Each structure stands twice: as C-alpha cells, then as structure tokens.
C-alpha cells in the first residue's frame, strides 16, 4: 500500500479540479444568460471534464489504496456533483431519455452528447500534466503509461452487467425524484456507488458511456468494437429499458405505492 501522503495528494487534485470546474460553471452561466443552448453545452462539457478528471485520479486511489477508499471518495464526489451540476448530467443516455420523454429533440440531444465527449476526452491533457509532475510516488510513470481495460468478463456478460446496473440506477433516480425524500442526493449517491462497487471487478462499473470512453477507449485488453458493445450499447440499452419499465403502471405502483403513483399520473 502506498504512503498515506499520496492519498492526500490525490484528494487535493480532485478538490482542485472540482473548484476549477465550479468557477468555470459560474462564468459560463454568467456569460450565456441569453443563449440557453450554448449554456447547456458548456455546462455539459465542464461537468464531464470534471467527472473524468476526478475518475482518472480515482483510478490511482483504487490501485494504491483499495476499493473501499475508492468507494468512499466516489460517494463524496457524487453527493457534491448532485448538488453542484444543476441541469448538466455528464452522461449521454440521459439525453436519450429526454428524447423518449419528449423533453428535447434529437438535435439538441446529439449536441449535448458531443459536448460531453469533447469535455471528457480533452481533460486527459490536464491530468497528464499533473501526473507528469509526479507529485507523489503513485503518479510516477502514469502520464504516458499504456492503460489497461477493466473488462474482466466476456463482452456480452459485461454489456449485460453495465445494462442491468444502469437500468437499476435510472429506476432508482426517477423514483427518488418522484418521492422527494429527505437527503435524496445522499440516498441516490449511495445506490450508485454501491452498484459501481458491485460491478468493479467485472466491467469496471462505469454506467456512463462518456466516462468509459474518456478513461478506457483504446486501452489494452479490449477492442474498440468490444468497448462500444459493453459501455455504449449496454449502458444505453439499460437506460432505455429502465425508463420504459419505470413508466409501466405496475412497476411504478410497486415502487411508489398506488396513491402516490395515482397523484403523479393525475399531475401529468
């Protein structure tokens, strides 16, 4: 196990990243008040860049301090992001869900997904510079090291794991939004983190195509085609299935209860 001071360095890198992203968000909102589409694109790019930068550093935490430390930091970050990102999601399939729900059109969804991928891919240069500085032993030789895939199971099984877990995440997220419990962000973050940890040693537990692409596309251990099947087709199919399942009256009544489900239906 690495020196605990290296964990402090990793936490500092993630805190600095979150701070800079927070500043960037506020500047973007202030400069685009009359251009909502541009604001939405910038917020998606910033959120995805923040997510991916922190998750690059979380790889360092997992490799050197174990999955428990990784999970604890991820949980804290997820709570922060749920209260900080606003309308941004940093996740492509949420915009597919919006298309299915009639909340947006395909053009806007495609633009937001493009913004997410741009932010996620470009941010590696920022992390690469930090790793190149080798502020701690855990960063040594990481800046230009060949990455390895997290997929430890057959491709179709990996896609199924990503898909099922994504469906569960989306059902839980929609249910929490409808129930509006106290500490909703903490509950949702706990569920998401638990599913990530459960899938960690099988598919990596990404449940987010943009995140998986930024961190693992082109890595040794799987082809680009296999990556797309597992992390894009699997996760997006899971999101669509989760959306359709949650809309089914039988499922919604079992989760929310008949009275609450009826009230929500009437409100629509």
Automatic annotation (TrEMBL):
One of its GO terms (molecular function) is channel activity. The chain crosses the membrane at residues 6-28, 67-83, 113-133, 183-208, 228-246. Keywords: Membrane, Repeat, Transmembrane, Transmembrane helix, Transport. It holds the Pfam family MIP. It is a multi-pass membrane protein. GO terms for cellular component: cytoplasm; membrane. It is found in: Membrane. InterPro entries: AQP11/12_channel (IPR051883), Aquaporin-like (IPR023271), Aquaporin_11/12 (IPR016697), MIP (IPR000425). Belongs to the MIP/aquaporin (TC 1.A.8) family. AQP11/AQP12 subfamily. This is Aquaporin. The lineage of its organism: Eukaryota, Metazoa, Ecdysozoa, Arthropoda, Hexapoda.
